[in-house]
Each structure stands twice: as structure tokens, then as C-alpha cells.
Design brief:
By secondary structure, the protein is α+β, with helices and mostly antiparallel strands. The protein has two domains: 158 residues, Four Helix Bundle (Hemerythrin (Met), subunit A), CATH 1.20.120; 91 residues, Nonspecific Lipid-transfer Protein, Chain A (2-Layer Sandwich), CATH 3.30.1050.10. It is 50% helix and 12% strand. The chain contains eleven helices and seven strands. A hairpin with an 8-residue loop joins strand 1 and strand 2. The protein is globular. The model has no long low-confidence stretch (mean pLDDT 95). It holds the Pfam family MDMPI_N. InterPro entries: DinB/YfiT-like, Maleyloyr_isom, MDMPI_metal-binding. GO terms for molecular function: metal ion binding.
């Protein structure tokens, strides 16, 4: 029986396998190269993914055993331990911790994937496995790109992840967008995406949000869905912008880059 969790779990597996194949071949010099995350070198991105995998697995294990939600002190201890590691330890630790997390997700049967509820500790209520796996995928796929683009300037977000993430990118905009970068200018854009195709609106005002396709937009943004996902998460710098991205109307692509500085 197919479940809502199946696709993100499969995407987590394929993403792990692809990134792990790259990481296993990285030497000490490679690990300290700049990544796509402006303030992190490659090993620091891997540390972030590895510590996140450890925290996610502990949270999932607590849900499976009806244990209490983890407190913030647990996370701080995990982050501190990973931050103290040498780059090669961070890379090796990522390989092991992320493998264990993916395998634990894969081991869940259909009933658990449907019925289990996971308390992440910072949301109003526990969420299902599908939602938790998509949250992890959002973190993993974008940071996978951060690592890969350090070695390949034409890297893209994994195609298995793009359809799953582009449909939930709207929930990120409330906390990652910086509408003040427009100095009071406002606009409502028609957004037309391809691969996969999506038609929606992007309203930029006192806050930034996705809407239904506007009948009379002020302008238009046309882009591959993968590029729009990277734009919204601050990963569409000029040197990493593919053909097929166009913006018309009162705002430019550079304006939108300022609104979405990334995280």
C-alpha cells in the first residue's frame, strides 16, 4: 500500500547514495573547499547534515518507543560534538549517521508510515512520517547541492526531490524572505514553472507569500522549478542561474535575489 511518506523516503535514499558516492572520494583539501553555503566549507555542510541526521534519528526512535520528545539541550550537545570534529571526522560521521537515518525510515512498514506521529519539539503538534521525511528532505537536498556545487558549478538539486519540495516552498517564505530589501516597493508576479509545470502567484508586499495565479499580475517570473526552488532558498546567484529564467515587470531577478538571501 502506497503512503504519503514513500516518495520522500525514496528521495532521501537516492540523495544519500549520490552524495555518499561523492563524499567517499573527498580528500582533506576537498573538505575545506568553499561550498554553496556562503559561510561554510564543505566539511561544515556535512557536519550540519550529520548532526541533523543524528537528531532526526533520535526523534524518530523516541516516537517509535513512545518516549518523550527530545529537549533543546540534546540538540545543543549534538551540535557541539559535531562542531568539535576535524573535517575528515565530519565527513565520515555524516556517512554513518545519514545512512542510519535513511535505513530507519526505510524500515518503517506501511502502518507506521501512516499512523506514527513524531514530536519534533518545536511544532504545535506531532506530525506524520511523510511530513517529517519531507522536512528532512528539504534540508538534505538543498545542502546536498551546497556540497556538490563546490565541485561542479552546474550542479542542480536532485530531480527526485524537486517536485516534492517546490510544492511546499511556500511555507518557507514567511521566515526566509526579506521584503524590506525592496524598500517599500510591492508587486504581484505570475510564476510559471516547468519540469514540473506549476502556475502560481508571488505576492511581494509587507510580507512575501505564494498565491493562486493572479488575473492581472504586475510582471512574470518564468523558470525551471528547480531554479525557482534555489531562488527561494538563496541559491540562484548569477553564476548558478540556468538558461530559461526570466523576470519581467517592475522587479528584476537581482531584486528577487535580495528578497531571498538564503539560509
Amino acid at each position: 500500500m502506497a503512503t504519503f511518506a514513500d516518495q520522500p523516503i525514496a528521495a532521501l535514499r537516492s540523495g544519500h547514495d549520490e552524495l555518499a558516492a561523492l563524499v567517499r572520494d573527498l580528500g582533506p583539501t576537498d573538505l575545506v573547499r568553499p561550498s554553496g553555503a556562503s559561510q561554510w566549507q564543505v566539511s561544515q555542510v556535512l557536519s550540519h547534515l550529520g548532526s541533523g541526521a543524528e537528531i532526526n534519528q533520535a526523534t524518530l526512535s523516541a516516537a517509535l518507543t513512545d518516549g518523550p520528545a527530545l529537549d533543546g539541550e540534546f540538540n545543543k550537545r549534538v551540535w557541539a560534538r559535531w562542531d568539535s570534529m576535524e573535517p575528515i571526522e565530519q565527513a565520515e560521521g555524516f556517512l554513518e549517521a545519514n545512512r542510519r537515518l535513511v535505513e530507519q525510515y526505510e524500515a518503517l512498514d506501511a502502518t507506521a508510515r501512516e499512523k506514527l506521529r513524531i514530536d519534533l519539539g518545536f511544532l504545535p503538534a506531532p506530525i506524520d512520517v511523510g511530513a517529517a521525511a519531507r522536512m528532512r528532505l528539504s534540508e538534505f537536498a538543498l545542502h546536498q547541492w551546497d556540497v556538490e556545487v563546490g565541485f561542479n558549478s552546474f550542479a542542480t538539486v536532485a530531480p527526485e526531490a524537486v517536485p516534492l519540495l517546490v510544492d511546499q516552498v511556500g511555507v518557507l517564505l514567511g521566515w526566509v524572505a526579506k521584503p524590506e530589501a525592496l524598500d517599500g516597493r510591492q508587486a504581484e508576479l505570475a510564476v510559471r514553472l516547468n519540469d514540473p509545470e506549476r502556475s502560481l502567484g508571488l505576492r511581494l508586499g509587507e510580507r512575501v507569500e505564494l498565491t493562486d495565479l493572479p488575473e492581472q499580475p504586475d510582471g512574470e517570473l518564468v523558470a525551471p522549478a528547480e531554479a525557482f526552488l534555489r531562488l527561494a532558498t538563496g541559491r540562484l546567484s548569477p553564476e548558478h542561474t540556468p538558461d530559461g529564467v526570466t523576470v519581467t515587470g517592475p522587479l528584476s531577478l537581482d531584486d528577487l535575489r535580495k528578497v531571498f538571501p538564503g539560509f
